[in-house]
Amino acid sequence: MFWGGVFGQAAGPDPGSAPALIVFVFLPLAALSIPLDRVIRRALARWFGLPPMSITTVFGVWLSQELTWRLDVPFWYWPDWGAFGNTGFGVAAVLGACALWRSQPRAAMVTIAIVGGAALASGAVVGRPVGPPALWASSLIPVSFALGGWYLRSCRRAGLRAACGAAVAALVWALWDGSGLSWILPPLVAPAVLGTWFVLGFHFTARERRLLMDPALHRVAAALRVARHNQRRVIALTGAGISTGAGIPDYVSGAWLDAEVPVEWYDHSHFLANRQARIAYWDACARFRTLAAAARPGAGHRALAALQRHGWLSAVVTQNVDRLHQTAGSDPVIALHGRIDGTRCLLCGWTGLWPDGSPETETAIRHGRAAGGGAGAGAGVGVEVGSATATAGPWHAHDVTCRGCGGWLKPDVVAMGELIEPWQWKAAHAALDNCGVLLVIGTRLLISTAATLADRARHEGALIVVINDGPVAGVHPETDLTLERPIEDVLPALVGLLE
Length: 499
Ligand SMILES: [Zn+2]
What we know:
This protein is of the alpha/beta class and 499 residues long. It folds into three domains: 2-208, no CATH class; 214-248 and 295-337 and 414-499, TPP-binding domain (Rossmann fold, 3-Layer(aba) Sandwich); 263-294 and 344-412, no CATH class. 50% of the residues lie in helices and 10% in strands. It has 18 helices and ten strands. Strands 4-3-2-8-9-10 form a six-stranded parallel β-sheet, with helices on both faces. A three-stranded antiparallel β-sheet has the order 6-5-7, covered by helices on one side. Helix 15 links the parallel strand 3 and strand 4 (333-335). Helix 6 packs antiparallel against helix 7. The longest helix has 32 residues, at 17-48. The protein is elongated, with a radius of gyration of 31 Å. The model is unreliable at 358-390 (pLDDT under 50). Bound molecules: zinc ion. Zinc ion binds next to loops.
């Protein structure tokens, strides 16, 4: 509308040509710009992760201009006024400021100050305004809107980043005007688009840029800010989905189980009743342990550790047993289902490392539980080591037993049909006291432990944020927030917005 007004007036000297111009040039171009917009939008999103903004409009107007020149109907001759005259400057500035004030005041202030300041300063330095003020303002106000109001609205350094964008946009405009290019080709909103792209391209990775266009990510960042401001806890509840990116298969997939062994043998009751089931269980756990030992924390683990380090996240509650959260530096971590590199005595509760014949075997793991459980009981208590090799554990020769009490040892993970250790369950519940936001990451809310903890958080009035690369069942769509995107993308982008 704005540019239509400008060019309509610009075509003024020969009123007779205006209707012909509209029918033969602008209407076909408007029709053409719809499929063109689709192509540009897709290409920008796929290759650069950048928003299209109004770039199709810019191309459309440039194409129109080229065509009208060939038809000998010039319609661009540096009009010294905008669609609404120079009042357009004031109107655009006031409306832009009002719109932005609500979303990201700092970024809005900075961009408008730079845009307006540059317009005024150019008058003093160059002796004339750089371009018509109305065009200048109407072209550069979008950079404030894009950066302040939309892409950076949850961003802590929004002011600084918006300043970069506004400065680049102003510089592009000044160079455009100084080079005389503006007499041939109107800059339109091209400087604003370039300024916005500069900020997004310079400060964010391609994956983060794609995510910045998702309003849900901004809502999560805003929720974390509110929680911190109100001194409420933010808890992450993680499941297998956060570790699949690190090369560990979802154990629900059964990839680490022996296909020859009936699935029910992995149930805890079979471990207690059946020697063959015990061997199968140890074998399966040994395979999983090898995978876990070789894995390195993924981008999701590292991002959660960063959030925790910077005080955005109070604790991680995980269903995973691979210890990748701890390796990434998360602390505290409540491991609901234990640890795959540990063993536990079913009789006295002693915990230690695996019976693989290494010197570590004699080392009890300090588990942070009450001393009464026999944890870390010191020298003399350890594992009876058989003729162990890496491929065939001592469990093939005989049941692995506790040196302290003679009870059976079992990998320190919660098997099917086995209860979560009460102290872990209690710790998870306590972590959810005064919870403001629960980030449910890579786990289905149908699993009873996850569902119970989510309900407990809902009871505390927490916002449930579900992050998973695929649909999650058990979500309350009217209250919960879902981001159906790769965890390795979402969490680092969240860190980028909050840092
Ligand atoms: Zn024991």
